[in-house]
Structure formats: structure tokens, C-alpha cells
Amino acid sequence: MTAKNVTIKATSNSGRTLTIGASLSYFVFSLIINAAGNVLTVVTSQKIHPTFLGSAYWTAAQAGFNKAAFGGNSASLGWIFFVVGVLTAILNVFLQGHFNWRKFVGNVAFMVPFSLLISFFADMFSRVLPDAHGVAMTIGYTALNFIGVIMIALAISIYQRVNLILHPADDLMQILRFKYFKGSAAKAMWASYIPPTIIGIIAIFMLPDFSNYGLGTIFAFLFQGGITGLGDRFVFPRLKHQGI
Description:
By secondary structure, the chain is an all-alpha fold.
């Protein structure tokens, strides 16, 4: 998956062609997929002993901080996502070079249902999925972990194109993608990983624990941006970027 394959020109589809009903339908659908995918990467990683999978990149950093600061409590994970989201929304203001009330409020508003869904799926998957025993379950959980990363990437593709309200981290990627990287999803995703890298380093200094980092984290780092770009082309291909 090269940057060439996932590049979209920012000058095209600059208007909005979706109705509000269609926009909301796409948004709700992608929000649920994103939250479920994020939690799936965390829980599958936790269910294998010793852990080696890790979770999606942003998720790994935030889950690592949650474990370092709050002992890995599933209820506090949603709050960690919310606070990091607000801080990222503030960063987005500086990168844009101007303050846009609609986008900022949208970034913060996104975090409310997203954080609730994170807590919901964290509780549900933790109860439903047993600890892995044997090679078959380990392979199955590894596949689920990768599927979780793919779910996140495709969800990002959908609601970035809808561009109604965005998760702050995905708005950060979108700003970088069209303002600094000429539409390249892969390059923008890698650049957007700087904040979670900082969060992860802080968490490791607080508690030298690497259980949230592993094969799935590497998979997310290498391929999530590229999968998002492919999603633009092959998942709801008639859905074009709105309001870019």
C-alpha cells in the first residue's frame, strides 16, 4: 500500500452533496464500527497470556496510560479517550492556523458518544471473550486484533468523507492529509501518530509495562493509513469527501 495508491486531491469534491439524513446514517454506522474495533484490539490483546498483540496505535498509548494511572480499569478508559480527544482538538486549532467553533465543538461532541461506546464495548467484550487457551484461540484472537485495526481504518475512511463531525485524532489526520501531505492518507496517518507516541512514552515512564504494545500495534502503524485510503476507493465508493 503506497502513498500513491491512497492519495486524493484536496481540490476535488469541495462541496457537500449528502443530505443530513445520509450524513448521520454514515456517521452513526462508522462511529459504532470505530469504537468496536478499538476495543476489540485492546481486549484480544489482554486475553492472550503472555501478551504479544498490543492494540491500535492511539488505543495502545491511551490504554497504556490508563493502566499506568488507573490500573487498567475499564470504566476509566472512556475518560482517558475523552481527555486525550479534547487535547488533540486544541492541537488541531493550532495546526489549522485559525479557530473554527463548529469544528472544535464537533471534535469535542464526537468524544461523548465515542467514549460511551468505548466503555460499553470494553465491558461487553471483556465479559464475552474468554482468555485464550491453546494455539487455535491464539491465532483466532490475533486475526480478531487485525480485524479490529481494519475496522478502525475503514470507519475513519467513512466519517472523514462525510466530514460531519470527526474524532479529534482523525481530524488531525485529515488536516495533515490535505494541508501538508497532498491527500496522502498513509503519510498523514504516520505524522498523526506523534501525539500518541508521546503519551505512550509518558505511560512507560510511569509504569514500565508493554502489554498494550505488540504485533497489532505494529500492524496498525504500518497499514492503518493505507487501509483508510483503500477504504476511500472501495467502501461506499460513491461517497466522496465532503466540504474539503
